[in-house]
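Sample 1 of the test manifest.
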Amino acid sequence: MDLATFGVQLLNAIQYGMVLFLVASGLTLVFGILGVINLAHGTFYMLGAYMAYGIAAATGSFWLALIGGMAIAFVAGLALENVFIRRLYGRDHLAQVLLSFGLILVLDDIRQVVFGKDVHSVAPPAFLSGSIQLTDNMSYPVYRLALCGFCLAIAAAIFLVVQRTKVGMVIRAGAENREMTRALGIGFDQINRYVFATGIALAALGGILVSPISTVFPGMGDGMLILSFVVIVVGGIGSIAGAAIGALLIGLTDTFGKVFFPNISSVLIYVLMAGVLLWRPNGILGRREA
Amino acid sequence: MAAYRTIIAVAVLLAVALALPFTVPTYYVQFASKVLIMGILAMALNLVVGFGGLVSLCHAAFFGLGGYALALATPKYDPASFFVSFPFAVGSAALAALIIGALALRTRGVYFIMVTLAFGEMLFFLFHDTAIAGGSDGTFINYKPEVAIAGTMLLDLDRPLVFYFAVLTCLLATIALLTMLVRSPFGHALAAARDNERRARSLGFPIFRLRLTAFVISGAIAGVAGYLAAAQFGYVAPQMLGWHLSATVLVMVLIGGLRSVAGPLIGAFVLLGLEEVLKTATEYWKLIEGLVVIAIVLALPDGMRHLLIAAFGPANDDTPTVTSVAEAKHV
């Protein structure tokens, strides 16, 4: 493998890891703060991609699709928290698993009614649709580079909000010790719904952003849900930094696995997860109690 | 009081189960076989979920492995021998449960859910992405397994009636085995670990080994169910291993109630009956099923027991509650 090929694969791996991070950080945030495991997270990734297709097809603008899709997901997140998820606070994991499974069935059929079950693709915005010539016979799409930059910006924004703002302080306190935070009179129940809606919006954002570089199909949410879980198990639950490490590791393993060991590439990330479980059962950055 | 009510209920159910194939059309006999098979799977899962307190999302993988084992053991133009293919199927499922369980049981709570889900999907992708037994299309099993010793046919599983009774026998054996396990010291220790892991550990129970044993037994029985399902439909596909089936079976467990051995069987009957009705009524049956699942989770956290208690008043639990065991030992 020459240097150019290696570079392209490395970029692919990082870009894949970035998208994984977006989706998984939403999931880990919701679990860390709300204590709710949401299996319907992957479904919103899929819905995000379909909304991007729907809005882009109707308006011709990828940017409208980006903003509109996220806004719809955020509002849907607020509504879902209000109607269903808030009833799960303090309930056992079984109830959370099954309620979100019920949501998957409902949302899947809603997608069926609104968008059908066809496979679609979305055009990237015009000025990002070119590609950069690397060598004589190798080029790299501009959109993928822009995607990397955009995801980095979002990741930085998440870090800043969580680490540097007052809201972030409340979020961290709530993740650390829910009862104590409440006992100190901090109104962190109000923040729950916005955290949930943000998590959903991040999942949808992941779906919107990948829609120009991969196909939009009904089963894409399931695959992403499993990958997000692997990312979180590897990185440690509730930790944004852990999600970042896990996402990059999975991105690298999957991309280079496909290059070097094409026959067993689909199993490699699970081997990685098994290895982490043997080494640190609570994830690389996980705490003892989970 | 409660004891004779239970006995009457069991007698009536058994009589219905025995009389059923002689009174209804073949289609319903096959539907009943399907319910019993899914009931076996749901009861197996409940050993881990209800009695072990571990929410597993990979039991469909063990179920699917049992089915695929039969598919791989069946030659193209001949039936497989039951006495070879059945142990092969159960053994494969048990081995997978041993490996996955040993890794997943290093974790707790929500991690356990995510790890079992991920490993289950790994097996799904293994059969979906490779050419083993037809890849994503699945494969047909042209002949039902042959139950024969030295060339003499003992059971003709091709006849729906015979197959139904074979499944019923497996179901009763499963109920007997699980009841025995749950009431044994092993079952009590398992439930003690569910109710208070720290206390059970400090009392010297080998938690990891107890849970792994339960997980492997449960996986093996799930393999039995998968073997039977593959034999009934003559077809296996990767969807058999997918986590949507695992979650559906969890719903059956919840409907039937987590604290009883045979409850999940009722859950299987209720959920499959509902699916059967909804599928004929509307194209969007999954939407309604999803809403029903959500409603059950929110309104009936104890499953049908809730309704039964509302209708008949509380019955004495015939399985000793575990808290009392743990408390007694504590004192």
